[in-house]
């Protein structure tokens, strides 16, 4: 805003000024005569020149357009005190007989004086010339002598042969020349008829002997420099009364008395006028001497008398180059960038450290996972999967990350059940299918084999009444098993636990018994390699929403080689269900499962636990209690009230008989699982024939191993709950060791 206003004011002043001074002269004065401009203090008409000394009066011959100082033509002049004029030379010519004619030449310099830039020069053979001036009020003479008898050979040299010159002291005034010759004879006169003497500005005359000695008349006038100044006082003496204008300085003349004026740096114009010195716009001027020297990136800004090179913010000017460079923050505010830099550096280092740590951690965790994989029998599993049995056995091996994601980082809200054998989590796989993830408890290495066992066993079973194993994860410290999700609890829960209710009718129970018996029969005989479950109990029977039984927990199961009827193993099982013969001998065969099934059947019939320590001695062990009740014909005492109806007493009796047969002490006396299944099935079929009420479809059995299907079942939306180890703690009293 102020800048604009400033420009505006400058414009106004300029207009006013032009009207007043009209360039470099006073208003209304002639500014030119021919080629020469006329500037104050010089002028032509009255009032246009500095009148105090009467020396600055010039005239202009309008016909020839030549400017005159007195009778001398003006070439040019400068503010610094020089006036260049043209002066005629003096000469003397000779008769053949006559010698030495003296011609003088006089001139009026007014108050001006000769500059010492001039040279007094004489041209001619056997010639001498001298000048007399008033120098500091004394008569003063100087001169030179030149001799020659022939035309000098050298051109341009004025050294005494045909031409001589001498310097003139400054402050010389009044100029009188006398020239004369001596020893002139006809031969000299032939090539040099005249002698010449003149003043000339140094360097403006170059002697050319052959021509100049013959005839210098061609050059009638030579430039001569006069010194001029204002007054005869020093600047100090005149003080503020000098005629020097604004923005100009007064300078004492170096060549004479008086002073001259000079525009200050950055201003240009006529310093002898009041407002003659005008600011130079260095930014726009085309003049090379005044042009700004802001370099490159800096921008020029014109100021009164000077200019500024300015830089955009964030940059500062380098005084030596006038270019811009990045700002160098002062020290006292430097702590911010230092702090910033330090912080950034520190963060960068921290980041690198964290990255390296993460990387190492990652590598370590990969290492660990590998280690766990081996430790958890990954190698064994691979070996067993590739070596033994059918090639279509397929168990998906999940990654640890996948498991973490599926269980939301083993979140507590995802726990379905917790027990002696471990924890079961509800997991959601990336394809949104729900699974049960079983995390065994930290165990010794012997459990690895059990674990691998379960994987192998389950991977080879495809039965609608067996919980499907989908895969496993071996990369964790404790291996994980991934099952289909079955959501309606265990048979144990239904009979004795949290979910017990009256909805479990005899029809349901019988069907469940048939399903379990059929499954065990299938495991014992129909699967390609006979499997003994070894831990049949109600807690290991899962129920889905249709109360369809799903046999689970094959942790202790054994694959029995075809050529062997029984195996000697470490006795394992659950008290109450454990086959006493197996317990005593350690000999495992399929009849152990038959025993356990008998107990389960008794539970279904009686609604009582296999082993109940709270009860009196005779009813503590369900098998004994049931057998004695049967024997003493007081079965009704044992049978669950919910079950016993008028129309099913025969079936219940039959089932009870089967249960007791299954739990015979001697394995040989027990029926095979196949027979049990058939008898129970017959009971059920007979019943449906009788009453036609139960619409439950026949359990179908896939007779072949479909490991591939185990995997594809992941997408099966009908997969439901799994809860095998809920409440297991109570019953899972290991009988072995
Ligand atoms: C003016 O200058 C021109 C060229 O510079 C020159 O030819 C001419 O003679 C000059 N006129 C006068 C009057 O000095
Ligand atoms: C101007 O110059 C011409 C030729 O040199 C001369 O005749 C005339 O008198 C001069 N005029 C004045 C006013 O000096
Ligand atoms: C200026 O000079 C001219 C001729 O040189 C002369 O006629 C005139 O009177 C002078 N004027 C003054 C004020 O000296
Ligand atoms: C004045 O004239 C001389 C000779 O003609 C020349 O060298 C010089 O540059 C001129 N000075 C100005 C300021 O015009
Ligand atoms: C030489 O001088 C005399 C007398 O001054 C004169 O009469 C004569 O004409 C001159 N001769 C020449 C060649 O100038
Ligand atoms: C200088 O010389 C002139 C004539 O040549 C004479 O009139 C004058 O008085 C002299 N001045 C001094 C100071 O000698
Ligand atoms: C110089 O003088 C000679 C005669 O001496 C003449 O022929 C010549 O034209 C003159 N030159 C000029 C430039 O006047
Ligand atoms: C200065 O000049 C004035 C008038 O021009 C004159 O009266 C005075 O004597 C001079 N003084 C000196 C020291 O030259
Ligand atoms: C010159 O300066 C004096 C005091 O130093 C002052 O009184 C006077 O007015 C000034 N004159 C001008 C024209 O500035
Ligand atoms: C200015 O620039 C010159 C040349 O590039 C350099 O040597 C000098 O150090 C700079 N000055 C400052 C103050 O940075
Ligand atoms: C620029 O010009 C100024 C005068 O106008 C001068 O003082 C300075 O040294 C110059 N700087 C450069 C870098 O040429």
From TrEMBL:
Residues 1-23 form the signal peptide. It is found in: Membrane. Pfam families: EGF_CA (PF07645), GUB_WAK_bind (PF13947), PK_Tyr_Ser-Thr (PF07714). It comes from the Eukaryota. Keywords: ATP-binding, Disulfide bond, EGF-like domain, Glycoprotein, Kinase, Membrane, Nucleotide-binding, Phosphoprotein, Serine/threonine-protein kinase, Signal, Transferase, Transmembrane, Transmembrane helix. GO terms for cellular component: plasma membrane. CDD domains: EGF_CA (cd00054), STKc_IRAK (cd14066). Residues 410-683 form the Protein kinase domain. It is a single-pass type I membrane protein. InterPro entries: EGF (IPR000742), EGF-like_Ca-bd_dom (IPR001881), EGF-type_Asp/Asn_hydroxyl_site (IPR000152), EGF_Ca-bd_CS (IPR018097), Kinase-like_dom_sf (IPR011009), NOTCH1_EGF-like (IPR049883), Prot_kinase_dom (IPR000719), Ser-Thr/Tyr_kinase_cat_dom (IPR001245). The chain crosses the membrane at residues 334-356. Its main location: membrane. GO terms for biological process: cell surface receptor signaling pathway. It catalyses: L-seryl-[protein] + ATP = O-phospho-L-seryl-[protein] + ADP + H(+); L-threonyl-[protein] + ATP = O-phospho-L-threonyl-[protein] + ADP + H(+). GO terms for molecular function: ATP binding; calcium ion binding; polysaccharide binding; protein serine/threonine kinase activity. PANTHER family: WALL-ASSOCIATED RECEPTOR KINASE 2-RELATED, WALL-ASSOCIATED RECEPTOR KINASE-LIKE 21. This is Protein kinase domain-containing protein. It comes from Brassica oleracea var. oleracea.
């Amino acid at each position: 805003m102020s800048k604009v206003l400033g420009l505006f004011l400058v414009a106004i002043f300029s207009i006013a000024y032009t009207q007043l001074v009209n360039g470099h002269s006073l208003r209304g004065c002639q500014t030119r005569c021919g080629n020469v401009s006329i500037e104050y203090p010089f002028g032509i008409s009255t009032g246009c020149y500095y009148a105090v000394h009467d020396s600055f009066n010039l005239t202009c011959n309008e016909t020839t357009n030549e400017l005159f100082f007195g009778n001398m033509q003006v070439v040019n002049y400068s503010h610094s005190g020089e006036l260049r004029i043209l002066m005629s030379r003096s000469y003397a010519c000779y008769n053949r007989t006559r010698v030495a004619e003296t011609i003088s030449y006089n001139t009026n310099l007014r108050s001006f004086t000769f500059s010492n830039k001039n040279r007094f020069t004489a041209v001619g053979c056997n010639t001498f010339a001298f000048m007399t001036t008033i120098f500091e009020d004394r008569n003063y003479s100087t001169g030179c002598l030149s001799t020659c008898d022939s035309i000098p050979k050298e051109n341009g040299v004025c050294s005494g042969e045909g031409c001589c010159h001498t310097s003139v002291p400054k402050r010389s005034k009044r100029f009188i020349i006398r020239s004369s010759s001596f020893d002139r004879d006809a031969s000299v006169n032939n090539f040099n008829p005249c002698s010449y003497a003149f003043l000339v500005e140094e360097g403006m005359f170059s002697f050319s002997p052959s021509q100049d000695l013959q005839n210098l008349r061609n050059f009638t006038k030579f430039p001569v420099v006069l010194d001029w100044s204002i007054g005869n006082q020093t600047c100090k003496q005149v003080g503020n009364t000098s005629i020097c204008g604004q923005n100009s300085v007064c300078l004492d003349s170096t060549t004479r008395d008086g002073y001259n004026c000079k525009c200050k740096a950055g201003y240009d114009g006529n310093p002898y006028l009041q407002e003659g010195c005008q600011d130079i716009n260095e930014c726009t001027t085309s003049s090379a001497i005044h042009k700004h020297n802001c370099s490159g990136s800096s921008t020029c800004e014109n100021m009164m008398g000077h200019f500024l090179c300015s830089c955009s913010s964030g940059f500062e000017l380098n005084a030596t180059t006038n270019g811009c460079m990045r700002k160098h923050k002062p020290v006292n505010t430097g702590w911010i960038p230092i702090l910033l830099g330090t912080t950034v550096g520190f963060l960068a280092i921290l980041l690198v450290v964290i990255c390296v740590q993460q990387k190492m951690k990652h590598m370590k965790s990969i290492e660990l996972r590998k280690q766990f994989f081996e430790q958890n029998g990954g190698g064994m599993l691979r070996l067993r999967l590739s070596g033994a049995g059918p090639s279509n056995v397929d168990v998906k091996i999940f990654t640890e990350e996948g498991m973490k994601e599926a269980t939301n980082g083993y979140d507590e809200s995802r726990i379905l059940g917790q027990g002696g054998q471990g924890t079961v989590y509800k997991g959601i796989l990336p394809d949104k299918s729900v699974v049960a993830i079983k995390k065994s408890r930290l165990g010794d290495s012997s459990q690895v084999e059990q674990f691998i066992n379960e994987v192998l066993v389950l991977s080879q079973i495809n039965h609608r009444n067996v919980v499907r194993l989908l895969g496993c994860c071996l990369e964790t410290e404790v291996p994980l098993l991934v099952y289909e999700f079955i959501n309606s609890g265990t048979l144990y829960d239904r009979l004795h636990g949290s979910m017990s209710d009256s909805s479990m009718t005899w029809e349901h129970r019988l069907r469940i018994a048939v399903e379990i018996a059929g499954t065990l029969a299938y495991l014992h005989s129909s699967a390609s390699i006979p499997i003994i479950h070894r831990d049949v109990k109600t807690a290991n029977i899962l129920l889905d929403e249709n109360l369809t039984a799903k046999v689970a927990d094959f942790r202790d199961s054994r694959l029995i080689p075809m050529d062997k009827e029984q195996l000697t193993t470490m006795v394992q099982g659950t008290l109450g269900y454990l086959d006493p013969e197996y317990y005593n001998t350690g000999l495992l065969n399929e009849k152990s499962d038959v025993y356990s099934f008998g107990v389960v059947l008794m539970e279904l019939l009686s609604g009582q636990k296999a082993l109940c320590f709270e009860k009196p001695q005779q009813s503590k062990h369900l098998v004994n209690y049931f057998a004695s009740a049967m024997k003493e014909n007081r079965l009704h005492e044992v049978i669950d009230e919910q079950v016993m109806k008028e129309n099913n007493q025969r079936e219940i009796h039959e089932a009870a008989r089967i249960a007791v047969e299954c739990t015979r002490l001697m394995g040989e006396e027990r029926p095979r699982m196949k027979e049990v299944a058939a008898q129970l099935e017959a009971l059920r079929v007979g019943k449906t024939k009788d009453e036609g009420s139960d619409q439950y479809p026949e359990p179908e059995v896939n007779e072949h191993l479909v490991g591939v299907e185990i995997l594809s079942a992941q997408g099966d939306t009908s997969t439901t709950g799994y809860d095998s180890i809920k409440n297991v703690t109570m019953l899972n009293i290991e009988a072995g060791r």
